[in-house]
Description:
With 288 residues, chain A is mainly alpha-helical. Helices cover 80% and strands 0% of the residues of chain A. Chain A starts with a helix and ends with a helix. In chain B, helix 1 (3-20) packs across helix 11 (245-268) and helix 3 (57-93) runs parallel beside helix 6 (130-144). At the A-B interface, helix 1, helix 5, helix 6, helix 9 and helix 10 of A face helix 5, helix 9 and helix 11 of B.
Amino acid sequence: MLGRKIARHGLTLVATALLGGFLSATLIRLAPGFDADEAALDPHLSSQSIQALRQARAGQDNILRFYFHSVHQALHGDLGTSLSLKQPVRTLLHDRVPLTLRLVGLGLVMGWAAVLALALTAASLRVTAYELLATVLTGLLLCVPAAVLALLSVLWNLPGALAIALIIFPRDYRYARNLLDKAYLLPHIVTARAKGLSELRILFWHVTPMVGPQLLALAGVSVSLAIGAAIPVEALCGLAGIGQLAWQAALARDLPLLMNITVLVTLVTLLANSGADVIRHVWQSQQA
Amino acid sequence: MSFWRKAACAVLLLVLAVSLAASWLAPAGYAKQDRDAAGAPPSHAHWLGTDEIGRDRFARVLYGTRISLLLAPAAALCSTLLAALIGGLAGYLGGSWARAAMAITDLFLSLPWLFLLITVRAMLPLNVSPALSVLVTFLILGLLGWTAAARVLCATAGSLRNSDFVQQARASGIRGTRLFWIHVLPNLKPVLYAQFWISIPAFILSEANLGILGLGVAEPLPSWGSLLKELEGLVSVGEEPWKFVPLILLVVVVTSFQLVLSKQDEVAA
């Protein structure tokens, strides 16, 4: 059962990556200006050189051929060369992935620590002023663009990971809070509380098994949110990660680089969601 | 209607009215440069000071608010209609249609929203006229923002397809598009309204993010995104506090939308 689930996730992952890559390739091929080559405008080039440049690009006219050529090269480890940075895409990704992983990971840990701390205390204490404060804080953070939070973190000399944590915190808090609220109102938990069980025992023995799987699914989704948040944070905080690379590629219209980053981000997002789903499945089957 | 929702509606109407009256309140316009007063602090002539090339910040805030407040609903309408068409029809038809539509939706949702926006924006020319950049920015929001709404609409239309009144209509001989337009679509209206209203603040924030990253509305046209880009040059928060006015206005407007939406959220759920 578990093996089948993992296999299904794996198939979905590969199919989505291939389809996503194809869509990206199609959009890149159809993007205005793709046919134009700046080098061909060089007055120092002879007509034979210009003809050779055109012939080199001729293979990219057909979308399917362009896509299969890209996939074939990618399977052999050649992700192409960045048009704007004039470096192999593989090297660029290899150099920048660790920083993004660290930033996103740290942001997720900080964000989720805040989510759990605030949501658990709000749900268990049920103090109106505390709940109001948490609601106002998350409501306010939800209304500030992610890029502004990144700018403010630069102004206040705060780490970029904290900006990511502040971006994911209000979104996840609301879901977590709703889940915990519902759990704490369940009859068996109300009874446990009435019988005098300690709050910690109620939390670990009764509430966590109820909301844990759903919170895991939410954690999977928040990976996507954190990767999205990495773009403004890295771009505006001057951190040389994948988000900054994507932003630079977008500004320079470096489409081959952008296509590779798109496929990479899609894979990481799907992997996080699938991982969360599989862990949730294992957890639920153990409970059953 | 609660007090807070009434107040939020009043704030939104007030901001919209003031932004529509921009040409009377700031007759100099958003692009006129006062070279002698470049980077000036607030004064009687320039209520919010001027930017680094001497343009009146107050006028730019008003015109930027107008652009964001008029075009975000237009983009939301576009995305809601697309969601109704794709999600609603897929849910109504069911089977492989619904599976195919949801597979496409999943594909879109597998990429982080901001990432998807900058990827698609990069595929279009960046050196376009300011008016075209406004159109491109909000059109991208409208054309890409339908996915989450389509999921909700597909599920709702799917449940309507098997409801008693639709089955009775089908038994009475009503079929195909007529059944969809007359019996299914009108029942999707509450969800459509909710999705439309939910999309507006989301698109306002997305435009602001794109603008700050330099991929939004092109100069000299102002938008909340391009106005917030000025914060990049600040050294400390207390240095030029008037530069935070667009941010405060943005937060007030988005908060107002959230308060107005509190009822719509329940419908969407």
